Each structure stands twice: as C-alpha cells, then as structure tokens.
Amino acid sequence: MTDNTASAAGTGNRPWHGVLVATALPLRDDLSVDHDAYADHCAWLVANGCDGVVPNGSLGEYQVLTPDERAKVVETAVAAIGGSRVMPGVAAYGSAEARRWAEQARDAGCASVMLLPPNAYRADERSVLAHYAEVAKAGLPIVAYNNPIDTKVDLVPELLAKLHGEGYIHGVKEFSGDVRRAYRIAELAPELDLLIGADDVLLELAVAGAKGWVAGYPNALPAASVELYRAAVRGDLDTALPLYRQLHPLLRWDSQVEFVQAIKLSMDIVGRHGGLVRPPRVPLRADQEAAVRAATEKAVAAGLG
C-alpha cells in the first residue's frame, strides 16, 4: 500500500503528468467486479514504471457499473497505490452527477479527475463551459477529455483555451487523432497540459510536447510502453521509433470500437487478468482475436512483454 499523500514519481504538483493507465476492470465469471484483482493490477502497473491510473474511463467500462461499483473502484485504486496516482473519470450525463463523482474522488483522496464534455446530446459551447464550471466546484484539478468520435462534442483548441482561461481545466486528453491540434493548443493556451489520448498517435503527440499519456496498452505491456513514452518525450527517436513500430499493431486497437476486448485479450495472453466484458459489448470475432493474439505474441517474443 502507498500513503495517499505521496506524490506520483516525477509529476510534482501536476499528478496528471506521465503515464497514467486507463485501467481495464477485471470481472469474475459472473461479471461481478473482482476488486482484489483490480488492486493487484494497479500496484503491478506502478511497479512496472507507470505513474498512475485512470479508473472509470471507457476502458474501465464505467457506463455499465452500478454507482456502488463505480465508487468502490476508485476507493480500491486509492488504497492500492495512493490518491495522488489516481485520476478517476467522472463523466456523467448531468453536470450535477459529474460534480458528485468529482466530490467522491476528492473525498476518496484523489488529486485530479478526468471529465468528458456533456454527452447526452450535441452540446453547444455555452453548455460545455457551464458543465466544466459546475464540476470545477468540487475543487479538484480537471483534465478535460476530448473524444469527438464518441461524444459528438468537439473540444476544439479555441474552446479548450476558453476553458483553461476560466480556470476550469488544467489539461486535456486529446483523442481526436488530429495531431496538428497540439501546436494550436500550445499557441492559444501554452499553460494547458496536453495529454496523449490515443495510443496510436503517441509518438506524434509526444514530440509535439505532450506532458502525459492516458494510456490503454500498458494494461498488458507496461514496461515497454513506459520505455516508449519516456524515449519519445525526451526526443530519443533512436529508441522510440523502433519500439513504436513494433508496438503499433497493438497500439492501433486503442482507437477501434473493440478496444476493451482487444486490450483485455492481450492482458490474458501475457498472464494478467483481462477476461470478460459486460454487455452490450460482445467477444471479439475470430479474425479479430487472431490478429490481437498474433500481435501480442510477437511483442512478447521480441521481449516487450
């Protein structure tokens, strides 16, 4: 166990810096949450060089958890590795509910939260600003999560600059896939921290100045993923580029509809507890499973597992 006041390694007072793993959630055969396995997973990730975890993101299947399950996932992560290393997702349809999840994270000892824009409908700019203003009242630093593919609300650089200028957000997990935005964000809001949001643009955003990575595939391959990230952000392309090429057949699954199933399968292959997913997700097709299995086994054979 780690003391809740301990700072995540190398992050200072910005606990969203570094490699923060959007954790997959281990389920038992009856689809109940295996909290003991989850605690072990969080500790294993930190032991393998990751700076922290992001529970209750889409990779953690938060949409199909009960409120009690969702709260306990956060508490389990904090007990396992310390609150400064835990940045829960607090997305909800309503701003009041999202604020309550931010308050729950605060009370559990977390040091920051990650928040999607309103996603029950195609929110306009005023609604987005009001949403982040409400959740900011919980008092924890917020990292915005821009995922226009799934939410249909795009936190474009100009809107991010407004959110940051109002003091509502401190960083952004960028999942649009448009790496050109990194430079526009840096021009409009130079103090807003850019976090890599999609595994398959890691190198491009790292060299563009990203301060962190909200990561999927370190769930299965943490040590190699951390080595890749550290090399990329320090500009060591001689190390980073070959690793990136080796890992990219897996990293690109993070941007696919079946990313939860793919990452959990890779976890199973390397000896971790990946396992089942809750409906409405269904198992991978045979061809998808074969592709993930082949790419994972090739990475392990190359010493990346």
UniProtKB/TrEMBL annotation:
InterPro entries: Aldolase_TIM (IPR013785), DapA-like (IPR002220)
Keywords per UniProt: Lyase
Gene3D superfamilies: Aldolase class I
Ribonucleoprotein is among the record's keywords: no
CDD domains: DHDPS-like (cd00408)
Pfam families documented for this protein: DHDPS
Family: Belongs to the DapA family.
Family matches, as PANTHER family: DIHYDRODIPICOLINATE SYNTHASE
Protein name: Dihydrodipicolinate synthase family protein
